[in-house]
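Q: Here's a chain of 169 amino acids. Please give me its 3D structure as tokens.
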Amino acid sequence: MTCVFDHQQENEGVSRRQLLRGCMFGTIGLLFGLSAAGGLGMLWPTKVAGFGGVVTAPRKAHELAVGDVVTVREGKYHLTRTADGLMALYWKCVHLGCTVPWNPSLGQFVCPCHASAFAITGQNLTGPAARPLDAMALTIAADGTVLVDTGRITRRTRHEPGHALPVSI
């Protein structure tokens, strides 16, 4: 008597077990791949635009008259023109950090929270603010374009004429 084992015919397709194993390893591989890509993405520096980088003022230096104030929302600053020159003043109140708007009827920056008032130079006039508004570094290009470095903020104890960048017209 001979024993003949009937071998199961090989499937030409993929078995259920192989399919599930492939899906499991594929999902694990995808998870690790996305985690690695996210980790590497944090190592690449991003280009800083707006606040924290260099922001171009909407008006050129020669277009500003003495007494003009231009608010630049993208850079969070006020560009002011005085007899001494141009200044970029950080719009954050030095008292509690409120946004300080320009009040053209008073000719001052007035904090809406605690009524601190600042001159066009940023010098504190009244209120609980104990020092002037902070200033940002600025440069004037050859064509008159004003570039403000919002990443370089200077804390001032009082305003001095040397804080303004002279404008030659």
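Q: Can you summarize the key feature?
A: The beta strands are 54-56, 69-72, 77-82, 85-90, 102-103, 108-110, 117-118, 124-126, 135-140, 146-154.
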